[in-house]
Amino acid sequence: MTADPADAARILVVDDERVIREILAEFLTLEGFSVHTVEDGEKALTELRLRPYDLLITDLKMPRLSGLQLLERIEAERLGVLTVLMTGFGTVETAIEAMKKGAYDYLLKPFKVEEVIHVVRRALYRQRLQTENIRLREALTIYKVSEAIALSHDIDHILDVVLRASMDEVKADVATLHLLDPRTGNYEERVKVVAADGRMHGLPSPAFTVMTEQFALGSPILAHGGKASRFFTESATPTLLSSFVAVPLHVRGTLVGVLNVFSFTSGKKFDEGHRKTLSVLASRAASAIDNARLYGELRASNDSLTRANLSLEQMFQQTVAGFAQALEESDMYTRGHSERVAVYSELLARGLTLPEHEIRRIVQAGVMHDVGKIGVRYDMLNKPGKLTPEEVAVFRQHPEKGKRILEPVPCLHGLIDGCWCHHEWFDGGGYPRGLRGHDIPLVGRVVAVADAYDAMTSDRAYRRALPHEVAIGEIERCAGTQFDPELAEAFVRFLEIWRLGMRERGQGSLIPR
Question: What distance in Å separates the CA atoms of residue 150 and residue 187, rounded to the nearest whole number?
Fold first, then answer.
């Protein structure tokens, strides 16, 4: 197997035995991965601080810094890398304890090449899902913020929406937003939000001169504890501040404001991911502020409405484009459901020996199939009783809503069929269009089977999960009516083979729950 070096997953191998490092590096490189090795935990930390890695494989017992200590340092510094531990038979319990502290999996020495590849591929798959989930949550936040401010020309309302979204994203205790008054040259606090359970011990006053110097270097501010003090006036230097982020609001290259978030909670530190997310939100806020000011100017000249709406529509389209990497919904139940549907969809697609690019499209469609439910009320989705006819009608709109969300983003067009067609029935009795047989796109027919199986075997507000055998019986019974009979038969067969293989290897289910 080969891969483009630019696209290959990056793996860092840490072991004080040179032979182990060389063996792992050799066969992982042959599998198409980009591999770097170091001989101890301290060097691993240095490497992780300098460059991003998708996976860390580390020995448990090493001089200077053990695998457990390395794991603790990674967690404390929020370096965000998935970790697999290597250990001898005598320390399995320690490895399991390490997994409780954040390690993803472990390998027993001596190990076989096949075992390593299996664990690595499974870990990288989970890492990709986690990355995609984070991107989706960020994209959904951007989408919701833009939807909330798209028709607003009230700057204070826009700032309040952005600030509350920032609070939700990074779980800050306090957030403030200052705008530059062009007449005086001073920054004025326009909005401040304090979390309901937030901790605030005397909010410090920002030193905007120091901040703007940092922004001029092209970098938002991320600082922890005492290192944040230089960004505040001497008379208000924070003593209990745990972490601080400040990002600039630029309009056409000009600094117009500053978004600040504070954590006064011990141990709660912001990271680079938080800084990037806040930078995106600040960019959206700056665009919205610019649009709102422009609207006011145009309205005064009796030509504002058309041009302001056009500007806001352009902003809306740019925001929806943030769904290019979106593969999950924000609701906790649905997130798990979508991941499982993606796994079941991949199981069926691979069993059918479809081309790899088609398998990837089907998996992504499985994750995105319910994205239209962001327009359905949470209480309706989780209603314990029977839905009313009106609620059923609203619920049945979610495939069409999902299609409309994906349509403006060209790179997501390949996922539309899975989102739009997974409730179509093979006999024509489904919705939203009543398609029949092979008029239903293949991705829609695959996701339909996977979605139904997981829905039956998962707890819902209105019933407990059905046993696997009952769900399989329903799949077989509905073959030819609800489901493509060939795909239903193949799904049942491949799923049973997969489950049998897991039992024979003594492995639990890999389906995320």
Answer: 25
Cβ–Cβ under 8 Å, residues 338 and 368: yes
- How many C-beta neighbours within 10 Å does residue 426 have? 25
The DSSP symbol for 228 reads G
pLDDT, one tens digit per residue, over 401-434 is 889 888 876 767 888 999 999 999 999 999 999 9
Please name the CATH architecture into which domain 10-111 falls: 3-Layer(aba) Sandwich (3.40)
261: helix, strand or coil: strand
Q: What one-character-per-residue DSSP string does 303-333 give?
A: -HHHHHHHHHHHHHHHHHGGGGG----SSHH
- Residue 296's pLDDT band, with cuts at 50, 70 and 90, is low
Do residues 329 and 367 touch, judged by C-beta distance below 8 A?
Answer: no
User: Where do the domains of the chain lie?
Assistant: 10-111, 138-325, 332-504
Q: What is the pTM of this model?
A: 0.40
Q: In Å, what is the CA distance from 84 to each residue of 103, 108, 116, 125?
A: 6, 11, 10, 13
Fold of 332-504: Hypothetical protein af1432 (1.10.3210)
H helix intervals, 150-200: 155-170
CATH superfamily of 138-325: GAF domain (3.30.450.40)
